[in-house]
Design brief:
Layout: H1 4-11, H2 26-37, E1 48-53, H3 56-65, H4 71-79, E2 82-88, H5 94-106, H6 115-118, H7 123-127, H8 136-157, E3 160-164, H9 169-175, H10 177-180, E4 184-192, H11 211-214
Antiparallel strand pairs: 1-2, 2-4, 3-4
Helix pairs in contact: 2-8, 3-4
The structure holds flavin mononucleotide.
Flavin mononucleotide binds next to β3.
């Protein structure tokens, strides 16, 4: 199929070795981060905090959290240009939603006199809060929408990436507690440029299940 969207999605792959000499130009990084900010989420809750690890010191802190697990992922953190931590809110509440409502008022999407009514959407917060008061499964799902958006945006920008669930969530959440500002993190994304020889995945063909196994058209 010939289409720029399909070409982008065929171009992208999960990088398995980064060229540690290359950094993402600031202009591209700015576009990427703005695209991430524009990600859609349930009731526009935006129950996330993205922490961008740009410095060697910040990346070293991240590497340290792995301990003995995922040596390959650890190396990506060091060799990649940047690492994004995807933090999700563990106990999202009506108070958190107030920031969304007030921003809606600020941009004249909601009239100030309709502020109370705007909180009606919080029925979805209640619906997605479990018996222990946790909203993690709902807010974590929203961060995966951001991940999908990120992967597609990066493909368009011709920036390589490695989504990463292979990390020690408790250790990352603890190490970056201040920056995550009450959010928990079990998902990260390394971005940069693949190593021309060392990235075995760049040379492999794209593999996905065939159309008939994935879709049912009725
Ligand atoms: C949510 C998620 C978590 C992933 N975690 C890791 C990981 O920890 N380490 C890694 O090398 N690849 C990881 N991957 C990459 C997948 O294995 C990869 O996307 C999949 O095999 C498809 O290959 P492609 O991305 O090259 O098209 C992850 C992908 C996703 C979407």
């Amino acid at each position: 199929m010939n289409h720029p969207i399909i070409e982008d999605l065929l171009w992208r792959h999960t990088t398995k070795k980064y060229d540690n000499t290359r950094k993402i130009p600031q202009a591209d990084l700015d576009v990427f981060l703005e695209a991430l900010r524009l990600t859609a989420s349930s009731i526009n809750s935006q129950p996330w905090k993205f922490v961008v690890l740009a410095s060697d010191a910040a990346k070293a802190r991240m590497k340290h959290t792995f301990g003995d697990i995922s040596p390959l992922n650890q190396q990506h953190v060091i060799d990649g240009s940047h690492v994004i931590l995807f933090g999700n809110h563990p106990r999202y509440s009506r108070d958190d939603y107030a920031a969304v409502v007030d921003q809606d008022i600020k941009v004249a999407r909601t009239r100030p006199e309709n502020r109370d009514a705007a909180f009606g959407a919080c029925v979805y917060v209640e619906k997605n809060t479990d018996s222990h008061g946790s909203t993690s499964s709902w807010t974590k799902a929203q961060t995966y929408i951001a991940l999908g958006n990120a992967l597609h945006t990066l493909a368009r920008l011709k920036i390589d990436s490695t989504p990463m669930e292979g990390l020690d969530a408790a250790a990352v959440t603890k190490e970056f507690a201040k920056e995550l500002d009450g959010h928990e993190c079990s998902l990260a994304l390394v971005i940069g440029y693949h190593h021309p020889e060392g990235d075995f995945n760049a040379k492999l063909s794209k593999s996905r299940k065939p159309f008939e196994q994935v879709f049912t058209v009725i």
